[in-house]
Design goal:
The chain has 17 helices and 16 strands. The structure holds 5'-O-[(L-methionyl)-sulphamoyl]adenosine. The site of 5'-O-[(L-methionyl)-sulphamoyl]adenosine has 19 residues, from strand 2, helix 1, helix 7 and strand 13.
């Protein structure tokens, strides 16, 4: 039995989760369910990134202590993940004492190996990103992501010798030993590394909300170093170099482009320094905008995932999120577009197909037999032989993490079935030629059953409901229309 380790980034808790966070987490959940369904041992890790200046400032603005603030926000992430039916194996908080202890052990080891040294740091820093910036990264002097001018940071600091790993990283990325997808993202990272990797400052004198350096309590650890180690501590790692926890390294690490560069440099650099294997694949999905604008609280255009669940139901929300981003591309959403898509794809296409077929079958009582009928034009969606290495289209698309493309494929079948009913004038056929009508109904029931199975990782409740409807021969509305 092979293993699959899937991670999401751990999210900053300066606010509750929005649709961007929900997208990554639902995508990871779908992949995790798919690999489980294939019979693999899966570990799916998510969590929250709770230290650093940005969180500290958000707590102060809310008039709360940091601890009280992060506890409250973290709970809001857990609540939303529950509403979205996310089945993670562990939810890691960077304020967990076991995480903190392991991080300190690891950092001490790097210091002992002389991979950490003291120097003077001077450079630009964006608190919104919690990342170092070069002049080339800025547009009109501002961080393009946060629209703020980065601060000039000048302090005595501890440095991690990242430059020492430049050659190894370059080779591993170029040879795809550390795969970065899509290819455009890999190319961006390669050209960044080709310009040369500098050592990075890994300490903060002025930030008290963080893990203190075990060898100098006057400093806290740079929040990204703290955060990256979550991918290890989330598996129970205790901070020992060279000690690979079960499931490590990650097979798929999901994220969007905003945090790829650090994931492709600092993170593998730390792993090489800790004598641990590198992740197999960093997968970068697209970025959501809302009505063509960046999502932001100040613009008041944020779409909150719990509102999606409220309006469209849990599976409606999961479907809409996943079908909004094409592989490698950004996507624009709005309440209008989402409502339209829900009504077209779910209420009309899928919902109607199921209720029509069940109603037309009321008197005929056709049943799917053991022998699956061969349906013209129908591509087999799921592989029923779990032990085989799935030759079907969907399995291939899963390997490539083309989730929207899988949904499109499933909906092609749904649309084809609706057309088939029209072409056959099935409502007439069942009356005038019940024998022929029965044959068509068996084909359609079998198609619906395939669709239901293919949807299981994406829409687990709907998949179960479809199975029940087919078993009982009674329909209940799957997706009521919304306005
Ligand atoms: N805390 C860091 C990650 C540390 S991981 C060791 C962080 N947190 S974050 O809260 O800003 O989350 C960033 C991630 O959330 C993105 O990489 C992406 O997965 C998801 N998204 C946040 N906004 C998004 C969109 N607008 N669109 C799609 N996903 C985005 O960075």
């Amino acid at each position: 039995m092979s293993k699959t380790y899937i991670t999401t980034p751990i999210y900053y808790v300066n606010d509750r989760p929005h649709v961007g966070h929900a997208y990554t987490t639902v995508a990871a959940d779908v992949l995790s369910r798919w690999y489980k369904q294939k019979g693999e041992k899966v570990f799916f890790l998510t969590g929250t990134d709770e230290h650093g200046a940005k969180i500290s400032a958000a707590a102060a603005a809310a008039g709360k202590s940091e601890k009280e603030f992060v506890d409250e926000k973290t709970q809001s992430f857990k609540d939303v993940w529950q509403k979205l039916n996310i089945e993670y194996n562990n939810f890691l908080r960077t304020t967990d004492p076991t995480h903190i202890a392991a991080v300190q052990t690891a950092i001490q080891h790097l210091k002992d190996k002389e991979l950490i040294y003291k120097g003077q740091y001077e450079g630009l820093y964006c608190q919104g990103c919690e990342q170092y910036k070069t002049k080339d990264d800025l547009i009109d002097g501002k961080c393009p992501e946060h629209q703020i001018e980065p601060q000039l940071m000048k302090e005595e600091s501890y440095f991690f010798k990242l430059s020492q790993f430049e050659k190894q990283l370059k080779e591993k990325i170029e040879s795809d030993e550390l795969e970065i997808e899509p290819i455009e993202r890999k190319n961006e990272v390669s050209s960044f590394i080709n310009k040369g990797l500098k050592d990075i400052s890994i300490s903060r004198k002025t930030v008290s909300w963080g893990i203190s350096l075990p060898f100098d309590k006057n400093y806290s650890l740079y929040v990204w170093v703290d955060a990256f180690l979550n991918y290890l501590t989330g598996l129970g790692w205790d901070g020992q170099a060279g000690k690979t926890p079960e499931f490590f390294p990650p097979d798929i690490q999901l994220m969007s482009k905003d945090i790829l560069r650090v994931h492709a440099t600092i993170w593998p650099g730390l792993l090489l320094a800790l004598e641990l294997p590198l992740p197999k694949k960093l997968f970068v999905h697209g970025y959501f905008t809302i009505n063509s604008q960046k999502m932001s609280k100040s613009l008041g255009n944020v779409i909150w995932p719990e509102d999606l669940v409220e309006k469209f139901g849990v599976d409606g929300a999961r479907y809409l999120l996943l079908s909004s981003l094409t592989y490698g591309q950004d996507g624009d959403i709005s309440w209008e577009k989402l409502t339209e898509k829900y009504n077209a794809d779910l209420a009309n296409n899928l919902g109607n197909l199921v209720s029509r077929v069940i109603k037309l079958n009321e008197n005929i009582k056709a049943k799917i037999g053991r022998e699956k009928p061969k349906i013209k034009n129908l591509e087999k969606l799921v592989d029923e032989d779990k032990s085989s290495s799935s030759p079907f289209a969907i399995a291939r698309l899963f390997e490539e993490i083309k989730l929207k493309e899988i949904l499109d494929k499933i909906w092609e079948q749904v649309a084809w079935a609706n057309k088939y009913i029209e072409e056959k004038k099935l409502w007439r056929l069942v009356k005038n030629n019940p024998k022929e009508g029965k044959k068509v109904l068996i084909e359609l029931l079998s198609l619906i059953s395939g669709v239901g199975q293919a949807l299981a990782p994406f829409m687990p409740e709907t998949s179960m409901k479809i199975k029940e409807i087919l078993e009982k021969g009674e329909t209940s509305p799957l997706f009521p229309r919304v306005s």
